[in-house]
Amino acid sequence: MSTFTPALSWDLSTAYDLFVSLFVLHHPDRFGLRPSWAAGVRSRLPPGQREFLEKAQSFLPVPLRWLYLLPAGARDAADAVSALAKIPTAERLATLSHTSEHTPEFTATLRSLSSRQSWTPAELEVIRTFYQRRGIPLKPTALLNLCQAWAHPAEFGDQYLEALQSYYRLFFTEEEQRIRPLLISGIERARELALHRSIEHLLDALSHGVHFSGLHSYREVILAPSVWSTPLVFYSPIDPARLFILFGCRPTDQPLTPSASAPEPLVLRLKALADPSRLAILRRLAESPTTPGELARHLRLRSPTVVHHLQLLRLAGLVEITLLPSGERRYALRREALQETLPALEAYLQVPISHPPSPEDPH
Length: 363
Fold this sequence. Notes:
The chain folds into 2 domains: about 5-250, no CATH class; about 265-350, Winged helix-like DNA-binding domain superfamily/Winged helix DNA-binding domain (Arc Repressor Mutant, subunit A), CATH 1.10.10. It is built from 16 helices and 7 strands. The protein has helices spanning about 15-25, 35-40, 45-55, 65-70, 75-85, 90-95, 105-115, 120-135, 140-150, 155-195, 200-205, 265-275, 275-285, 290-300, 305-315, 335-350, and strands at about 5-10, 210, 220-225, 235-240, 240-250, 320-325, 330-335. The mean pLDDT is about 90.
C-alpha cells in the first residue's frame, strides 16, 4: 500500500517572531538564553505591563494558527497587532489560546469559568490534565494565572493588547529590522534543502531531530522560518488536513544575545553534558529510545526533573524526539551530534585570539 506524501508550502512573516520572542523572553531557560539579558529586555516595559505579561506568558501559547490564518499579505508584526485590536476585547484571550487540539471538555470548562467568573477543583483538574496529556504541564502558579484570565476575559483582552503594543514599540520594531534578512535567507536555505530531501529528512534537518509520526495523515505541511525559536520548533495543526511548523533558522554563528562569544551550540552541548543525571539519561537512550515516564522509573527521578533534563538535552541537539499521534513523546540519542562535540571544541580552541595592540613605550 502506497504512503501518501503531504504537499509542502511556505510562509514568511515577522509576526511569528513577535510572539515567539515574547515566549522566549519569559522562558529563557528553555532556549539557553541568559535570564539576566531576557530580564533586561523585559525591563523596557512599564512595571504594570511587565508584571501582566509575566503572568500571561506563563500559560499563553504562541498563536500560530491565528497568525497563519490572517489575510495574506497582512501578517507582519504590525499587521498582527492591528488585527488583534480589531477583535472584540472579551474574545482576544480565546483567539490567542485556540488550537485545533482543544477537546470539547476543555473548551466547555473554559467557557464555564468565563460565565461564572470562578472555578471548581474539578475544573482545575480538567485543565491540568489537558496540558499534561499534551506534554506541556503547567506549574500551579501558571494554572492559577490561566483561570484568573479566563474568569475575566475582557479585562485580560484590554491589558494584553496594551502590553503587546508597548512591547512592539519599545523593542520589536528595532528587532524586526534585524531579523528580517535572517528570515529571508533562512527560508531560501530551507527551500534549497527541500529540492534534494524527502519531507521527513527535510523536517529532521530543519528541526534538529523532531520526527512527526503522524505526518502522512496531513494533506499539507506549511513551513515558516523563525529566528527566535532556534534551535527548537513550534508546531500546530491548522485543521485536520494541515500542519504548520515554525522552524529555527538563525545561523549558528549569529547568537541571539549580542555579548555571546563562544559558539552557541558548543556552549549548550557542554553545559548539557556537565550533569550526572543528564549523562545517565543519555546512557539509557543509547540503549533504546524511550519516554520521559520510562526514564523516570528506570533512573528513579521525578517526572518533572526528567522532562527538565530532556529539554536541555533537546536544546543542545543531543537527543531527537518522535511525536506520536497519542501525544506521547519518545526520545532517542542523536549520535551524530555527540560525535561532533569534541571536534567542535578542538576547532574553537584553535581559533587565534585577537590581542589588542600594546601601548607605545612613553620613552
